[in-house]
Amino acid sequence: MIISNPGASESITDGLALVGPSRLQQNIYNSSLRSTEFHSERNLKQHSVVTTGQKLFSCKVCQKGYKHESTLKCHMRVHADIKPYECKFCGKAFPTKSALKTHVLIHTDEKPFTCDICGKRFTRNGNLKTHMRTHSGEKPYSCLACGKSFTGKSNLKTHERVHTGEKPYKCEFCGRYFSIKCNLKQHTKTHEPK
Description:
Elements: E1 9-11, E2 16-19, E3 29-30, E4 37-38, H1 41-52, E5 57-59, E6 65-66, H2 69-80, E7 85-86, E8 93-94, H3 97-108, E9 113-114, E10 121-122, H4 125-136, E11 141-142, E12 149-150, H5 153-164, E13 169-170, E14 177-178, H6 181-188
Antiparallel strand pairs: 1-2, 2-5, 3-4, 5-6, 7-8, 9-10, 11-12, 13-14
């Protein structure tokens, strides 16, 4: 960290952690990267985020890091199950405006992210990035139990259920559990009237 007394941590609000000094130690804060002075600790921290890409704010629940306190506060809604943004098409609620915006693309069939190699389109940039690994052959996510590798984190998570036996998806009609969501969807069709 750029500020003196690195590694100290202080609480901002419940569930939020600010990485930095526990108290102010000098009136002028110096950047170790440049000969730049700042008159507030907050300005120095913002400068450090821009110059180093550091994520100064971390979630105490899941340890995910953020560059801005406001983004972390938004993230905390996920853990508190606060979902103030509702989809006008289906009524599903979301913790952030951006999550709702991404969800709405499902209803409008908009897919703004396109693969330059094969032309496949995606609603999310992250899905495009994962897809690009199918072309490059990169599989950065490996199962600790068996060593099998995957292009995406969610694929690994689904695979790990083979080892754990976890079945988080329950049929509302018969109570049967499934390890994969698409298997539940397929099963649910057996309950539909013919």
